[in-house]
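Supplementary Text 2. Reproducibility record for the structural model of the 247-residue chain.

All settings were left at their defaults, and a single model was retained for analysis rather than an ensemble. We include the record here because the model underlies the residue-level annotations in Supplementary Table 4.
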Amino acid sequence: AYDEADNAAKKLMTELSEKLRDEKNKDTPSRIAWQRIERLYNPIAYRLGKARSQQLRGQLFFQEKTLLKAQQNLVAALQPLFQRAGLTMPPELAPADLNAQVDAAHKNALRDLTDSANVLKDILEMDQVQRNLWPQSSEARQLSISVDYALHYLEPDKGHLESAKTTLKILADTGVTFPALPPDLESRTITPVPIVAAGKAPTTNPTAGPESPPITPEAANALKELLNRARGAPAPPKDAAQPAPPP
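Retained model, structure tokens:
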């Protein structure tokens, strides 16, 4: 569906470009509408949607692998106890194809995340993205960081972490601010901020060093959530209940 939308948008952009370049349409009232349609139906948006859907599917397989690996570790810890007791491990806990399930989840996650990375690579190399003329340029870079970071955990030493760091630096250079990131990805010098005096809003958020972009609590939280998902961590609940105060 994304490919069909992409092709349809490309065809529409070609037709609009021809109309906008035509001298006889220079003063036509329809020119403003054509320009708005050109911005609205940019083919890159559909490619970004495709990359996002591949990333989400890859994360599902990544999390499945994480759960299966935990099951493998549990079986390895319990197996000696069952053997000493002369008991058989229940097949629900230790299915015969557990190793195959782990391998399949790994391959599926690697496939979908690699496909997403390839689409994002093409997007980030486009002129209007590199020049930040496309409104979703930062969004594409954030998604690329998340994908590369997840791939780093699936196949280390393949350059994925360095790729994520490079894209993160480009994102920071555009003026985008974001909270503190995982230590293996973070490239800024982070120093703690003390609690401010009474009468001012207290904060425990980190602050950046003198050569780093500023960090605000509300800035780019979506990026941090993406990176948490890349490591297989579940998203925090939106309305978590607060602990009751002691009596």
